[in-house]
Amino acid sequence: MPLALSFAAPLWLLLLLLLPAAVALYVVTDRRRRRGRAAFASPALLPAVAPHRPGWRRHVPMAFYAAALTALAVALARPERVVAVPVEEAAVVLTFDRSGSMAAKDVRPSRMEAARRAADRFLDAVPKKVRVGAVAFSTRPRVVQGPTRDRDEVRVALDNVVPGGGTRTGDALDLSLRTVRRPARPGAKPPPGAIVLLSDGVSVQGKDPVAIAQTAKRLKVPIYTVALGTPQGTITVPRKGGGTETRRVPPDAASLQRIARASGGQAFTAEDAGALDAVYRKLGSQIAREKQPREVTSAFAAGALIALVAGGMLSLRWFGRLP
Q1: Quick check: is 9 in a domain?
Q2: Considering its fold, how many domains does the chain have in total?
Q3: CA–CA gap between residue 306 and residue 65 (Å, rounded)
Q4: Among 19, 101, 135, 281, whose Cα sits 20 to 30 Å from the Cα of 235?
Q5: Nearest Cα to Cα of residue 249 among 94, 105, 141, 108
Q6: 162 and 190, same structural domain?
Q7: 134 vs 156, 161, 231, CA distance in Å?
């Protein structure tokens, strides 16, 4: 593949116009020198008068100087070439349960806050090149933040989530799976990814979350679950006839374990959520490539210096002087 160059300062290439002029001057000077030798002695006597003429060697230093001038002009023009730069596109989607049961305060200060803290620990630890998005769900899931490398955007999106409504874990995982597999650029293949599900685990409506997890496994998207809450968890809800009542909302850790196992992921609790480094250890990375200009001035500048030094050294070695 040919090396295509562009130039940030192309006007410096006008220096190359000096090269033909320098070559012409050298040729004229060399001819004058030969005419001078012929005037000094006849051609038949030259071998006796000057038995060791330099021959072709007298042109070599000047050829190096011409190469140095060419490389210097190109270097001053700041040459650039387009190279394929590797870019990591691995993505993780935080699937955040915001159903009414997440308001329970059996985990201090609340299940919802415990989920935020677990998400925050994850955002602090995940590699900066990995894109992170967020899906919040209750009765209906929605993408609150698409995959991005800006961790603050994800934190702000999760800070605005409030508990309320039912739980459709399967629907949320389905949306998360589609989000995490969305290519970062049009035409690119789906990036490798993972889903982190932070929930108390009780899914009462919508698609079967285990079936979605099995689909995720086929697509090589593991689901890591974080179980929140204790069997003593309660919330206060309105009563049909008026007033309120206290309702128990124990977590369903077994369902979360089944989801993680079916997807090829791993299950955690809020207490050991710091162990979520398994997520980004196992992620792997897909190296995509995007074309970016890279300046190669230093290569041409080094070439100019090498040619200049080589021409000078050869001239000193063969003729004892610089041209």
Answers
A1: no
A2: 2
A3: 10
A4: 135
A5: 105
A6: yes
A7: 11, 11, 27
